[in-house]
């Protein structure tokens, strides 16, 4: 399979050169064109880890198409590229100049101004430009890391790209020894969150494992492994009918979460027990420990598994059949009764009047919207419902689970 590269092209007349964009596409280059330096650099800044190289016109608009194209636009782009290339030691950004100005080719003053950046002429074959781009990209730090971990990169792209933005500096630091200015353990947690959100979206993870936008990391890990997972302030728990994650990958995930829990919190705050695991205890005896590298590789194993599993299991209705019942812990044994749905409110909560009200203390039972499958409950539907006896603010008993009769 031919590699494809994403290229920013800043040229005030790009819309008059459609044949170049078509040829670049055939050569494996996806061109994102801009007329001004400002627009192109703003896009690059937001998509730094998705862009493989930049093509710059010699004379281009700097800030607005109302200007006259000059080398000021080029100088502005070169200055921004230099700034972004060194920012947080993140990456080098391959870039070339592609000009239709014959007087600039071989001009020593112009060559001094661009400080060694390769210059290609639009009056010559574009193949020279494409070959030059491939050489620059293949030798870049970004491409070196992508080629080293292609499956992880593909999984991050599939998740939306933000995961690679967080993984790349960590992976690059292993290769170059550059200092990490971010919080790498927190970044690994965020990458796991991205994967859990994907699994949640297709029903592989139970819907209650993400509430109010917050991912229950430990609960999600346990649920995937087929173990009891706790959720919510009310002390509820839930469990899949069967685990879906391979045991070894599940063990890796558990390890990563434990390491990230330790690595992403401050220590010595007066609340940490003496026997609580800490990174400093490892560094005391092994300052050059490889814990972060191990956790990063295991994180990549998990997101690669996530992508592969979801490609085969993409139907939410099928996936949700693996959800088991939810129980409320510490409230008492479950009571199962039969009854009829008498109403469904705007929030999707269904209220059941049982056949024998004395069994429930003459209280209705509320089936929370998170328990209702495919909007199947409506007025008059007969159900068998279980409750642990917890009383909700609306005065009804909370349902634990139900089945339609």
Task: Explain what the structure shows.
With about 400 residues, the chain is α/β, with parallel strands linked by helices. The chain has 3 domains: about 5-145, Response regulator (Rossmann fold), CATH 3.40.50; about 150-320, no CATH class; about 330-405, Nucleic acid-binding proteins (OB fold (Dihydrolipoamide Acetyltransferase, E2P), Beta Barrel). The protein contains 14 helices and 15 strands. It has helices spanning about 20-25, 35-45, 70-85, 110-115, 125-140, 140-150, 150-160, 160-175, 185-200, 215-225, 245-265, 280-285, 290-310, 315-320, and strands spanning about 5-10, 30-35, 55, 95-100, 120, 210, 215, 230, 235-240, 325-330, 335-345, 350-355, 365, 380-390, 395-405. The radius of gyration is 29 Å and the shape is elongated. The protein starts with a strand and ends with a strand. The relative contact order is 0.07.
